[in-house]
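The pair is set out directly below:
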Amino acid sequence: MFSPDAWRRNTPLYEATRTLPFNRELADGTLPMPAFRHYIVQDAHYLVGFAQALALAAAKSDRPDHVVQFATAAVVAIEVERTLHTDYFTRFGLSAAEVAATAPTPVTHHYVCFLLASGFREPLAVHLAALLPCFWIYREIGRDIHGRAGSDNPYRAWIDTYAGEDFSRAVDAMIAVRSEAGAKERDAMHAAFARAAQLEWMFWDSAYREATWPV
């Protein structure tokens, strides 16, 4: 099976992501608010692109149940952007116009372009492999942080969202998707999964450093 094999191959990368300063400090509630503010604005941009990439997966699918699954996941991604993010934007005193006017960072831009390119250029199986790390890594990070975070953690709403059962069921559904693939396509799937996992690491690291375009 592709999914368990892909996870095993990328376990060291997941561990490196889990132990990033951003996630360590998010768990103990000491993450500086400017870093989380940077993250949540960029995540708003990312989730729009992620929803578009899921919509492409729905369009490429032949099975009606998969069309519904991917299209529903695209809707949920936008709903998260409009609920969880909007709550934090209110806390930070950010208007929708200010968020929209904040440019995607290099990592956000690259990650979104990677997912959209895979949707337009790659077979469905490869595209799904590129989408899977965002689901899977977020769930495992959410669970890990949930197990260590106190009830008074200022980022509790974010933690509860990604450690919750609703999100977990969506992740299980993505992991369970089966796609026929030959050896060459399987190699491309593993490459896509690994690249997306790298970009997950980079996204959190970039937020912690509050990185922007250097020029």
